[in-house]
Specification:
By secondary structure, the chain is α+β, with helices and mostly antiparallel strands. It is built from 4 helices and 14 strands. The two termini are 31 Å apart. The model has no long low-confidence stretch (mean pLDDT 87).
């Protein structure tokens, strides 16, 4: 079996901005002569960080392609589950799970939230165990049913998922309303609370809070059209505000990227040298969770 991964939606921003990096290097903002080079170094440092830590920082969407679902279910013999691990923690949400049935048609699978208590639902589906922190998420068949039969063709199992700590989203929110309008961005129901005690995705909206400050809240529900309702209403109306959806990228990760990009800047991006220990230390610090 051969698995492959394709990036469907790249991160909308870098975890370290160009202005932040120029300040870190003590380069005046007015000096734009090296902006293109510095931007490229930040991109390279971020991509190397994600490759070496096997994580993703700013929210992005990936497609996992498999030649089939896992083999015969061993759910009842004590040896484990026919699970699929989703790479690139931290996990954010599942966008879709699809497969090619024996007739050659692409079929969707829906998430089962009943834990086997509603046997009248679709016979085939999936359960999600979202992991947490640096622990990868898992997808499993519903209890107590197998994965659906598939046609034996390449990439017959397709799982699209979001990963990363969080990312920027342009939103609008009227005063006194909790219904979040986000053109070009659709929230997934998995982004919102599903079970008692769960917390939804964090949302920070500059300008919508008290006195025009930041409204720090979370997604309380998502309708069938992907429109999110927040747990708190806007105190001040905002239009086309740059909100941040999810957690902030950890500071050790951002510092690691800046030190790595600085190393490139000072030593040359094509110089094959060992990384400074501070870069490795900050990477390891971020992986502890």
């Amino acid at each position: 079996m051969s698995d492959s991964l394709v990036c469907l939606v790249a991160p909308a921003a870098e975890p370290v901005s160009l202005d932040e990096f120029k300040s870190f290097l003590e380069i005046p903002e007015s000096d734009t002569s090296r902006d293109d080079k510095l931007t490229s170094l930040l991109l390279a440092a971020r991509m190397l960080y994600e490759r070496d830590t096997r994580t993703k920082l700013v929210t992005q969407t990936w497609l996992l392609r498999r030649d089939s679902f896992p083999g015969i279910s061993v759910r009842y013999d004590g040896n484990g589950y026919p699970e699929i691990f989703l790479p690139f923690p931290p996990f954010h949400s599942v966008v879709s799970v699809k497969y090619v049935d024996v007739a050659g048609a692409v079929q969707p699978l829906t998430r089962d939230l009943s834990y086997g208590n509603q046997l009248a639902t679709n016979f085939y589906g999936y359960q999600l165990e979202p992991g947490g922190g640096m622990k990868p998420a898992r997808i499993l068949p519903t209890w107590a049913r197998p994965w659906p039969p598939e046609r034996m063709v390449p990439a017959s199992t397709l799982i699209a998922f979001r990963c990363g700590f969080g990312g920027p989203v342009t939103v609008s929110l009227p005063q006194g309303s909790a219904a979040l309008s986000s053109p070009g961005f659709v929230f997934n129901p998995d982004d919102a609370p599903q079970l008692a005690g769960d917390k939804g995705t964090k949302v920070s909206i500059p300008g919508a809070g008290i006195g025009g400050g930041v409204l720090a809240t979370y997604v309380a529900s998502v309708d069938a059209n992907g429109v999110a309702t927040l747990a708190d209403q806007a105190v001040v109306s905002v239009a086309s505000a740059q909100a941040w959806v999810g957690d902030l990228v950890p500071e050790p990760a951002r510092l690691s990227i800046m030190f790595h990009a600085q190393f490139f800047f000072e030593q040359g991006a094509v110089v094959d040298q060992a990384l400074p220990r501070v870069v490795e230390a900050l990477r390891n610090r971020n992986l502890i969770s």
